[in-house]
Amino acid sequence: MIVYGDRRSGNCYKVQLVMSLLHIDHTWRAVDVLQGGTQTPDFLSKNPNAKIPLLEFEDGRCLWESNAIVNYLAQGSDLLPSDAFSLAKVQQWQFFEQYSHEPYIAVARFINKYLGLPEARRAEYEAKQAGGYRALGVMEQQLKLTPYLVGDSLTTADIALFGYTPVAHEGGFDLTEYPAVRAWIERVQQTPHFIAMES
Asked: Distance between CA 136 and CA 86 in Å, rounded?
């Protein structure tokens, strides 16, 4: 399998982390979004949505969207429950990540870390703060009750939210007031075969 991505991207890191935890062999192909790496005819033929990460199989089939990829890779492992309700809870948190977490925390991080917080996007950056803190508050509530987002064990729900939460400070978010989130980050980091995101 080939993974096309950027090692500094939280969405791409999710895929890297699952592959490390599950010992999945793959080839990594670096893609520079800022240099138009997702706009080439070859890349667009694999993902017309022009985004990373992208997983390409040996037979040429392709899969995109980070949470779809991690769920595919985790099938049959402890990272993805087989029970219908537990699986739905995993997906619940993954939808939460894409609609209530990533659009605020990841975008603020992109504006600051990748673009250098240009004045033209400062208002947008500042507007992301309230939504990001709201998402962290939702996570804090759950993680006060359970060690992981869907109970007592690590799942791809945690992987989805782990993409950008540990680096939220790069988007201007202070995790000091979220002790359960910080404890969860430490638990995930202690998982066997854990790898950190490249800075």
From this structure: 22
143 within a domain of the structure (yes/no): yes
Q: Are residues 171 and 123 in the same domain?
A: yes
Whole-number Å distance between alpha carbons of 104 and 124: 10
Same domain, 178 and 110: yes
Task: Give me the long-range contacts of 34-43 (CB less than 8 A, separation at least 24).
Answer: 34/114, 43/4
Round to whole Å and give the CA distance between 59 and 132.
Answer: 39
Tokens describing residue 87: 């699986």
CATH number at residue 23: 3.40.30.10
For the stretch 50-107, pLDDT in tens is 999 999 999 999 999 999 999 999 999 999 999 999 999 999 999 999 999 999 999 9
The backbone torsions φ and ψ at residue 161, rounded to the nearest 5 degrees and listed phi first, read: -80, -20
**Residue 100: inside a domain, yes or no?**
yes
Return d(Cα 91, Cα 115) in angstroms, integer.
Answer: 31
* Residue 197 resides in a domain: no
Angle at 74 between CA 154 and CA 114, to 5 degrees: 80
Decide the pairing of beta strands 2-5 and 27-30: parallel
For 103, residues 6+ apart whose C-beta sits below 8 A from its C-beta are 128, 131
- On whether both 61 and 17 belong to a single domain, the answer is yes
Closest Cα to residue 89, out of 24, 163, 13, 152? 152
